[in-house]
């Protein structure tokens, strides 16, 4: 039975459509093709999500969550488009070069290609399932025609846009091929994620993660290819300069993440080789095998992070000194402020984790409220640093992400002697959105606070943009949960737990925090260009999304809030 538009529309979809409409209404005429492509992507993703409601079992999503396909498909392209709007303002004021604007244009189309490729893949899967169930079902044919129409229109608009930023037809063809590779890589990666980590994420969450990873590592690959071409081929023949000038901290974070990716692949390969040649030795005790495996793990990790990743940074991205030496020089350039901040962070983490761990083991307090205390901890840690030491906070976020990734690898692979200990400790802070296979909550909170800060580097004419994650998660989401849990009576839906009182408290608390933060930023030298009516729309929209979505709100709300603050 085909759902009517009214019955198919729910709160989450309505908020996402308003979010997209708000961004599209702020576009200059020069970005009209981008507006058309995002509109097509929104309609296509809504269509796929409605069709997927009846066959979620095909994808083994996280139990209790909706598919979230539309939210996952439009979030990253809309973030890129909002950033493109901001850079268009900068270019009109001659604050940036044309190359930076074209680079962001390619990032937008790459993100859109990733999401469109996954939507095509999901459509094909559902069409095949419907056709196998009933070959004479006419709706499956109509679905295929509609999907094909959206894809063709999207491709035409993409070609027109790329032609306007390319000087030759060869450049346009090469960029289209590059976008096609992004779409193919996204499809393969989301297949791998859903198969390797079943019931760990919804389709929308997996789609956001997939498109983000492909976009980020695709940028690294493009930089590497561009550098190799310049080294091996005459620079005059290399007509495409991919990428922009990166800060030292951005280069280090990229290098560390690339090193961890290489390390994971190398370690698995070495272990497989070892087991193939020496795995038949049954006389060796289990403990000795674990110790040998652990030694291989830490030796490979050390070699990758000290030799391989820094070599890539120095050769490909022209980093002048060894990154570890640069980090020491950077920290000691302002030793009193930065070392004092490190001591403050470590003391706060130690006291909070020790206290909350005991509470989680012995108290009957609800896990969701306990986790919100960590949101408040994030505010107390990150807010002072973002105001007075933003560059150092950038570096600290990268270090924290690397530590989290290494600990999660140790936990998943049960690396002796820390694997089981880390698993027991992390399990004390999990909820229904985590699983034994993969624990993602701490990653989503860290990245939710860090991504707006990282993406606001360079030109920024909206002072609240870097605070998007801290405000929406640390203050808004926390107050909504606490007030809704204690005082909430009126629920947004009959089946949901979110209350109107909680949502109102979250929106009011963020607005109150902004009213305090803006004068404080003005006193430190920021030029205030943030208007209150667009700010009210941004806060209200992100608050309503928190109320309606069943997705991992730590991942989506900061990005939505960031996009709306860019306008």
From TrEMBL:
TM region(s), chain numbering: 108-129, 150-170, 249-274, 295-316, 336-357, 369-389, 395-416, 437-457, 463-483, 504-528, 548-565
Enzyme Commission code: 2.7.1.108
Keywords tagged on the record: Endoplasmic reticulum, Kinase, Membrane, Transferase, Transmembrane, Transmembrane helix
Highest taxon of the lineage: Eukaryota
GO cellular component labels: endoplasmic reticulum membrane
InterPro entries according to UniProt: Polypren_kinase (IPR032974)
One MF term in the entry's GO annotations: dolichol kinase activity
Keyword Transmembrane helix among UniProt keywords: yes
Enzyme category, top tier: transferase
Predominant location: endoplasmic reticulum
Gene Ontology process terms (BP): dolichyl monophosphate biosynthetic process
Localization annotation: Endoplasmic reticulum membrane
Topology relative to the membrane: Multi-pass membrane protein
Protein family membership: Belongs to the polyprenol kinase family.
Protein name: dolichol kinase
Originating organism: Gossypium stocksii
Source species taxonomy: Eukaryota, Viridiplantae, Streptophyta, Embryophyta, Tracheophyta
């Amino acid at each position: 039975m085909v759902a009517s538009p009214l019955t198919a529309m729910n709160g989450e979809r309505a908020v996402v459509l308003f979010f997209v409409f708000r961004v599209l209404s702020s576009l200059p005429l020069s970005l009209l093709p981008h507006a058309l492509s995002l509109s097509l992507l929104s309609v296509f993703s809504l269509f796929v999500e409605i069709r997927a409601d009846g066959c979620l079992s095909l994808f083994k999503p996280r139990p209790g969550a909706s598919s979230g396909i539309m939210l996952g498909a439009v979030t990253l392209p809309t973030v890129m488009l909002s950033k493109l709007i901001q850079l268009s303002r900068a270019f009109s004021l001659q604050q940036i070069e044309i190359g930076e604007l074209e680079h962001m244009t390619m990032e937008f189309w790459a993100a859109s290609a990733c999401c469109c490729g996954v939507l095509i893949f999901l459509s094909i899967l559902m069409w095949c399932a419907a056709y196998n169930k009933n070959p004479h079902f006419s709706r499956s044919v109509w679905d295929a025609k509609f999907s094909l129409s959206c894809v063709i229109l999207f491709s035409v608009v993409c070609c027109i846009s790329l032609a306007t930023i390319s000087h030759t037809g060869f450049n346009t063809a090469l960029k289209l091929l590059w976008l096609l590779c992004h779409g193919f890589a996204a499809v393969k990666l989301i297949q791998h994620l859903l198969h390797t980590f079943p019931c760990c994420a919804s389709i929308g969450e997996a789609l956001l993660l997939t498109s983000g990873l492909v976009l980020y590592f695709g940028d690294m690959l493009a930089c590497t290819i561009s550098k190799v071409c310049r080294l091996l081929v005459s620079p005059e023949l290399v007509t495409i300069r991919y990428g922009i000038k990166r800060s030292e901290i951005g280069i280090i974070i990229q290098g560390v993440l690339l090193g961890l990716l290489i390390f994971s692949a190398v370690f698995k390969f070495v272990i497989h080789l070892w087991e193939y040649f020496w795995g038949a030795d049954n006389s060796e005790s289990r403990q000795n095998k674990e110790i040998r495996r652990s030694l291989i793990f830490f030796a490979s990790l050390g070699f990758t992070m000290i030799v391989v990743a820094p070599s890539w940074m120095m050769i490909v991205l022209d980093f002048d000194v060894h990154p570890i030496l640069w980090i020491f020089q950077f920290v000691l350039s302002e030793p009193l402020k930065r070392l004092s901040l490190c001591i403050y962070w470590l003391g706060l983490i130690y006291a909070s984790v020790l206290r909350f761990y005991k509470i989680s083991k012995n108290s009957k307090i609800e896990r969701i409220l306990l986790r919100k205390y960590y949101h408040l901890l994030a505010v107390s840690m990150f807010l002072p640093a973002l105001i007075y030491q933003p560059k150092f906070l950038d570096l600290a976020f990268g270090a924290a992400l690397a530590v989290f990734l290494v600990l999660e690898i140790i936990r998943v692979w049960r690396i002796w002697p820390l694997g089981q200990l880390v698993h027991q400790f992390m399990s004390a802070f999990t909820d229904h959105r985590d699983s034994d296979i993969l624990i993602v909550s701490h990653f989503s909170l860290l990245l939710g606070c860090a991504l707006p800060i990282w993406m606001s580097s360079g030109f920024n004419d909206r002072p609240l943009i870097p605070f998007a994650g801290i405000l929406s998660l640390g203050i808004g989401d926390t107050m909504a949960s606490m007030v809704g849990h204690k005082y909430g009576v009126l629920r947004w839906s009959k089946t949901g737990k979110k209350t109107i009182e909680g949502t109102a408290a979250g929106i009011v608390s963020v607005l109150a925090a902004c009213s305090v933060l803006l004068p404080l930023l003005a006193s430190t030298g920021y030029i205030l260009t943030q208007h209150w009516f667009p700010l009210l729309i941004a806060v209200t929209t992100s608050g309503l999304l928190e109320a309606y979505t069943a997705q991992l709100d730590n991942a989506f709300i900061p990005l939505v809030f960031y996009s709306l603050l860019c306008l």
